[in-house]
Amino acid sequence: MTGEPLPPLPPAPADRSFSADLLSLTKPRIISLLLVTTVAPMYVAGSPSWLTVLIVTVGGYLMAGGANAVNMYFDSDIDDVMVRTRLRPIPSGRMSPRAVMAFGVAIATGATWLLAHFVNVLTAALALAGFYFYVFIYTRWLKRSSPQNIVIGGAAGAFPPLVGWAAVTGHLDLTAAYLFLIVFYWTPPHFWALALNKQRDYGNAGVPMAPLVWGEQQTIVQMLWYSVLLVALTVLPVCFGAFGMVYLGSALILGALFLKGALQVYAERVTGNWVRASWWLYKYSLLYLALLFLAMAVDRHL
User: Fold this and answer.
1) Distance (Å, rounded) from C-alpha 21 to C-alpha 179?
2) Suppose 277 and one of 29, 89, 129, 265 were both cysteines; which one would form an S-S bond, judging by CB atoms 3.0 to 4.6 Å apart?
3) How far apart are CA 243 and CA 241, in angstroms?
4) 201-249 per-position pLDDT tens digit
5) How many Cα atoms occupy the beta-carbon half-sphere of 285 within 13 Å?
6) In Å, how far are 34, 52, 61 from 127, measured between CA atoms?
7) Sign (positive/negative) of CA torsion 26, 286, 295, 248?
8) 123 within 8 A of 176, measured Cβ to Cβ
9) Taken in order 34, 35, 41, 45, is the CA torsion positive or negative?
């Protein structure tokens, strides 16, 4: 993986405030999807009070935001050589690494106390486990050492459904495990679709993403297999009565569109004209996961 010259760094917005930088450290756009996969399982598991949902939402945001901030601390060296991350608070010089680390640890600690005190200890423990998995297993170990970084490390993003489930029931069961696996198998095709279009950035940073190590064609083949497994897995909970026909219909329609996108990328793998198709799959995968989890909640309450 050889680096390439980067374009000139664009100027940071002149009116960028300290509070805006703190908010950006939490990566709110990414967390919004995590919160959907946290709150929707709460309504799958039961009928939680609005206060419980509010506390879990706030606690989940703080925990995920803390993990994202700590991630920026550890990745500040490579953020400086990636176009899409060079304006983050540390590489741009607007915040010190120590301040970013302190902020991340502080809000994650606050989230642990909030969830343990006002919800239950299992919920707090699962949220904290997701924090540690993301920071140490993914960021510190796998991200820079293996093309399997997204496959294994992506499990960190599958903890939110467990958090939401435990907040309502106080325990985990087979349905919760399936929700975890759905997010787990969704992660590789979602992130590899992005990685196909960000190879220059990852190459400059020395991050062994799958397209750079396995090659584009092999990565696209793996994306298709994971997509097939994902769609099959989304239907499986219906077989043991976890969900009904509303969810099944939604899962089949959403899954068919997901597979169509993956097949389109696969069809273009030889010609190399997969850029538009992979971007479509990446963007659709975000909507797919949100709608799938919302369909679960609607199905349970109908």
Assistant:
1) 33
2) 265
3) 5
4) 888 888 899 999 999 999 999 999 999 999 999 999 998 888 999 999 9
5) 28
6) 12, 15, 10
7) negative
8) no
9) positive
Quick one: tokens of 25?
């450290």
- Tokens 């068919």 belong to 256
Cα angle value 207/211/214 (rounded, 5°): 100
* Tokens found for residue 47: 């009928």
Average pLDDT over residues 250-267: 97
- Which of 296, 40, 50 is closest to 165 using CA atoms? 40
Tell me the C-alpha distance between 73 and 79, whole Å. 10
- pLDDT of 12 > 90? The answer is no
Count of positions (residues) in the chain: 302
Could you identify the residue written with the tokens 């793996």? 222
Q: Letter for the amino acid at 170?
A: G
8-state DSSP, 48: -
From residue 190, how far is each of 33, 171, 176, 262, 278 by CA, in Å? 13, 29, 21, 10, 9
